[in-house]
Amino acid sequence: MKALQIMAISGSLRNNSSNTNILKAIAGLAPENVVIHLYEGLDKLPHFNPDVDEKNGYVADFRNKIDSADGVIISTPEYAFGIPGVLKNALDWIVSTGELNEKPAAAISASPLNTGGENALTSLLLTLTALGTIRNKFSSLAIPNIKSKLDASGTIIDNQLAESLNKLLENLLDLIEVKQS
Ligand SMILES: Cc1cc2nc3c(=O)[nH]c(=O)nc-3n(C[C@H](O)[C@H](O)[C@H](O)COP(=O)(O)O)c2cc1C
């Protein structure tokens, strides 16, 4: 049986980013028939311009990777009550080409504050709705106080968080299965 391909996108470009570490942790939770690829080109994408038809290079690669994935997981920090510009820029490149249309998706925000980055999550979910993703009420998670849930190397040390991430992944896999059945 062909392995399911999930594309994981972190909204943070930081080294040792908690959001990137969350996605790596989810990759570690994936069952044998699921491969989770961490997208690493967010900082290479040019500024979005609807006048420009980017058929090659990083934009084409980003679009192709999303297109060939069975589902996507995005984990983002909150910057000034919104999602980071680099993440919105990437998502703007696929509005007209529609690679996320009818694609199962999961969304996470993680913050050192006890709000869990809920403004960023709300904003991300609105954009994912505009892009036509398939989600349900179990497809999103705001993670507060993230610094206390990861150790210095970025490993999850909070069992409840590990369980929540597992449930989010299981739900995404269920959505993919329903779509493909
Ligand atoms: C410019 C800037 C603005 C920020 N604004 C917010 C904010 O509005 N809400 C929030 O919860 N955290 C805010 N933070 C803190 C980030 O949530 C924190 O840096 C987080 O760890 C970033 O995620 P990362 O570890 O994945 O890079 C901000 C950080 C920066 C650098």
Strand and helix layout:
Blueprint: E1 4-10, H1 18-29, E2 34-38, H2 57-68, E3 71-76, H3 85-92, E4 105-110, H4 118-130, E5 140-143, H5 159-180
Helix pairs in contact: 1-5
This protein binds flavin mononucleotide.
Features:
single chain, 181 residues, alpha/beta, Rossmann fold, 5 helices, 15% strand, binds flavin mononucleotide, NAD(P)H-dep_reductase
Q: Give the uncertain stretches in residue-range form.
A: none
The neighbouring-strand order within the major sheet is 2-1-3-4-5
Helix percentage range: 25-40%
* CATH architecture classification name: 3-Layer(aba) Sandwich
- Report the strand count: 5
Strand content: 15-25%
Provide the gyration radius in Å. Answer: 15 Å
Name the CATH class.
Answer: Alpha Beta
| CATH topology term | Rossmann fold
Q: What is the makeup of the main sheet? A: 5 strands, parallel
Oligomer: single chain
CATH level 4 superfamily: Flavodoxin domain
Computed structural class: alpha/beta
Number of domains: 1
GO molecular function: FMN binding; oxidoreductase activity
Domain NADPH-dependent FMN reductase-like: 5-134
GO cellular component, one term: cytosol
Protein name: NAD(P)H-dependent FMN reductase
